[in-house]
Amino acid sequence: xxxxxxxxxxxxxxxxxxxxxxxxxxxxxxxxxxxxxxxxxxxxxxxxxxxxxxxxxxxxxxxxxxxxxxxxxxxxxxxxxxxxxxxxxxxxxxxxxxxxxxxxxxxxxxxxxxxxxxxxxxxxxxxxxxxxxxxxxxxxxxxxxxxxxxxxxxxxxxxxxxxxxxxxxxxxxxxxxxxxxxxxxxxxxxxxxxxxxxxxxxxxxxxxxxxxxxxxxxxxxxxxxxxxxxxxxxxxxxxxxxxxxxxxxxxxxxxxxxxxxxxxxxxxxxxxxxxxxxxxxxxxxxxxxxxxxxxxxxxxxxxxxxxxxxxxxxxxxxxxxxxxxxxxxxxxxxxxxxxxxxxxxxxx
Length: 348
Fold this sequence. Notes:
Layout: H1 9-18, E1 22-27, E2 33-36, H2 38-44, H3 50-57, H4 70-73, E3 75-79, E4 82-90, E5 95-102, H5 104-149, H6 156-183, E6 192-195, H7 196-212, E7 217-220, E8 229-232, H8 234-251, E9 259-266, E10 270-277, H9 284-288, H10 304-315, E11 319-325, E12 329-337
Parallel strand pairs: 7-9
Antiparallel strand pairs: 1-2, 1-5, 3-4, 4-5, 6-8, 9-10, 10-12, 11-12
């Protein structure tokens, strides 16, 4: 719409006087205020002067970066029981204009919503701990039960095998708790330089026995590839890959010739690690909700395995990409920034 008639200063002044937004104007180096309307006096519960405006709003003037919360309610100051949101505009003539609004109700709702999000996240995190500890606890329970019931019949060597399994699963639980501390923001990831190609081969060797014992072929394509150096927490990386392989095993359960493929290589800017399966694949809707709690594609699943994968990978400066199609299969690709080849493996 084209404006055909200019607004007179008198008319503009009348508009600013009656609108439900506070308006204050002042000039850098000036002594008083250029303008202050009725709504501004009401919101500030005072007849504002230059000193009051400087005290309340000057730190925010001059293009201060906006906080993430300001996207919803703007920056705000508290005046009595009221929260007054404001935005500062710098004009070419050197004047600054502050637009005020009452954001008390909106800010209250936002903080209530943030509280609910925190509470929900804590609930999800604790459920995630239970989910991740379930398998090793069951393994320890089973091994301890078999050992107890056959202690007199088992040879010392067989007893050591079961005790070693119990110790191994106990250490695994300890490591999961450390990783969950990191997930909750309590612990810290211990990142070092590793060759992702070698890590991929090592994980394939560790996981192949368990996977192939369930009738699934596991192949690794990375042997012979050039090194792909990146900075990760080795334990967190192994946990992420193990979670992806566990998901893949479930995805290929109904496939005639189930297969999981691990691969790693160095790209132009990133080190890549892929976990692919030829399982049932995912629909677009399933892909969109893949990293949401309680959104597992597996019957009885809670969906925490992939959340932990994304949290751990993000914490190491990496990303997770998903490629999938129904009845074709799914590929998860982890990407980490490459570090110079001169960086020694294991270096911080």
